[in-house]
Amino acid sequence: MSLAQVEEEVIENETAGEFEREPVPQSQWKSWKSFLGMYAGEHAAGTEFVIGPLFLTTGVSAFDLIVGLFLGNLMAVLSWRFLTAEIGVKFRYTLYFHLEKICGKRLVTIYNLANGMLFCFLAGSMITVSATAVGIPFDMKMPQLTDTMPNSLTWVIVVLCIGVVISLIAAKGYSTVAKAANWMSPFIVLAFIACGIVSLYQLHIDSFSEFWNIWGTGGEPFPGQMKYTFWHVFLWSWFANAAMHIGMSDLSVFRFAKKSSTGWTTAGGMYVGHYVAWIAAALLYAVYLKSPEAASFLNNGEAPPVAPGPLAYNALGFFGIIAVLLAGWTTANPTIYRAGLAFQAIIPKMSTFWVTILAGAVATIAGLFPAFAMKLLDFVALYGFILAPIGAVIVFEYFFGKKAEIQSFYAEKSGIKFNQAVFWAWVLSAGIFYGISIYLDVFLSFLTLPAWIFCGILYLVFSKWVQKRSLQFA
């Protein structure tokens, strides 16, 4: 056995196979098939059953939806391929360990806490989605778009049970998460396609022009919803996963990849999930909108509820219930896994298993509150906006650090625990552009890219000043 192989075995034993604070050794690199299954499963998932219908509530037109989604998802794939995967296979660190080398332990603790909590809330919305399927046999009251609190004891019990199962699967580590996604994703993809076909039949759609006319030239948004245009759809779909690609969270995933070209596998999630699945789910809601129940809501000036379980059950029966349940699992699993890694960086002495259980517990509590799922378009835009700018620090250091003549991994090499250059770049970029969103009433996804670029530029400028100043007083 070579010295390198011995070192790899020691690292694997010390890190329980997750390598939270070491580069992933070559023996643990995984083929593109693991990533294709994971991304297809994660993004053809429970939240798709919510997002698709929510697009209908915004009064979007056919062109804006179909073309906007196609181009927005393309930009997301390119972001994963040429930014996240490129850096992930170069260093093979988790996002949190990578940031610790740049930011210092104290600053990255703040980021990890925010990151972990936001991922838990996102996973909680997926648990909510699965609960709408499990509750059907129990005649459970479904949440409305305006609901924020649990509406029954049955709801609480169902959410708690789902949360326990999902947390245990996520706590088993990346390999288990990838296997679960591979097993479930073909079934889920088939379910979305079946939902779309059945819905077209129920809507009596016989031609492409009739399909196009489901959205037509658009209309007024439902009560309480924002009107979406092409740019809303394009930018929202690009940055729906901003924290994972331009925000670099998926460094923690791509560190296991053999090559950076593995980043192309994200297209499986974007076009099977964020394209086909969103449109198929919108068709489910279009069927429901023709029902007397939906008409009564609209007549009362209220938006009809978006409960994935009943929508899928109406199209596919119990097959639809199973599909929604599994779809929620395959998205919540890797999301809780990512949250666990964030908490791991804060409390490194706790094992990966137990920090993931902790993340799962927070996600389950969040799942009790329907607001995270019912306001998913707004929440996804917000969490991407908050977390994406910090990814610019990694990207700009990697691509432009040498030209700017700044020291890479400055916190590690200088021994500081709080890199002020990172802190002020993040706070100023997020604060300024969020303020613009609030005071000028600008859709938040319009400002994600400007905030990201601004943060990267500020980081280079501030780093040059901070590092030069530290040399003067050394």
Automatic annotation (TrEMBL):
Entry GO MF terms: cytosine transmembrane transporter activity
Top-level taxon of the source organism: Bacteria
GO cellular component: plasma membrane
Keywords: Membrane, Transmembrane, Transmembrane helix
TM helices/strands, residue ranges: 110-133, 153-171, 183-203, 228-248, 269-291, 311-332, 353-373, 379-400, 421-440, 446-462
Gene3D superfamilies: Hydantoin permease
InterPro entries found in the cross-reference section: CodB
Name of the molecule in the record: Purine-cytosine permease
Annotated signal sequence range: none
